[in-house]
């Protein structure tokens, strides 16, 4: 399933986490490695550019972090990133350069590439968001199936096992997710796709398409 591969979803020059993807074919393979990778990468960051705050939290000196935000390690907040009022970063999180983590947004076990925006009341767990991906207000990733079985991904009528109990969404570069949408466990959205507001998304959404509702997905002109 080539459409699900890392190389078809992400510009790897737009993340500080390049090395954690090495040896992986599909992005969800990275999820169990994020915490340990942050500990290794954090210790190698320039002390001129990053400050270690508390236990295993590295924050770029050019980043803006609201005093009401909570950041639990291990975590890295990149250069010129903004973490706003009452954001809750639970750990195992990499926030890319110039990214925005908004008010009351919660992150857990995630990689946000550079310029990602999750600016208003978002939950992003066990997920990877590509360069300039944007989640509208109230949109969330659902990362555990209701029956607690392992997550599988459906693409073009075929199923792929992930061997993961927890997996949210893999958003390619420049994906736009409309307000109050739910991305169900195992959602993969191709580059430059748009998701209509109030959508419930499952499986693979083709790159450069517009998801209006299940069964109604059109290509961009």
TrEMBL record:
Give start and end of each Mannose-1-phosphate guanyltransferase C-terminal domain. 71-189
**Domain of life of the organism encoding this protein:** Bacteria
Q: A Pfam family name for this chain?
A: GMPPB_C
Q: What is this protein called?
A: Transferase hexapeptide (Six repeat-containing protein)
* Key words of the record: Acyltransferase, Transferase
Molecular-function GO terms, alphabetical: acyltransferase activity; nucleotidyltransferase activity
Q: Which organism is it from?
A: Anaerosporobacter mobilis DSM 15930
């Amino acid at each position: 399933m080539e459409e699900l591969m890392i190389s078809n979803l992400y510009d790897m020059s737009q993340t500080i986490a390049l090395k954690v993807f090495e040896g992986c074919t599909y992005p969800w393979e990275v999820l169990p490695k994020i915490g340990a990778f942050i500990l290794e990468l954090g210790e190698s960051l320039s002390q001129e550019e990053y400050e270690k705050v508390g236990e295993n939290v590295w924050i770029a000196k050019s980043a803006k972090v609201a005093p009401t935000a909570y950041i639990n390690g291990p975590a890295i907040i990149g250069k010129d990133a903004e973490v706003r009022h009452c954001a809750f970063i639970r750990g195992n999180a990499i926030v890319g350069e110039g990214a925005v983590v908004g008010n009351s947004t919660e992150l857990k076990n995630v990689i946000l590439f550079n310029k990602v925006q999750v600016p208003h009341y978002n939950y992003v767990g066990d997920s990877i968001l590509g360069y300039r991906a944007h989640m509208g207000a109230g949109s969330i990733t659902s990362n555990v199936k209701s029956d607690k079985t392992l997550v599988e991904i459906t693409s073009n009528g075929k199923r792929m096992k992930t061997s993961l109990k927890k997996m949210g969404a893999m958003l390619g570069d420049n994906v736009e997710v409309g307000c109050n949408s739910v991305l169900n466990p195992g959602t993969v959205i191709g580059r430059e796709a748009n998701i209509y507001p109030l959508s419930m998304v499952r499986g693979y959404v083709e790159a450069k398409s517009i998801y209006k509702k299940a069964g109604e997905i059109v290509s961009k002109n």
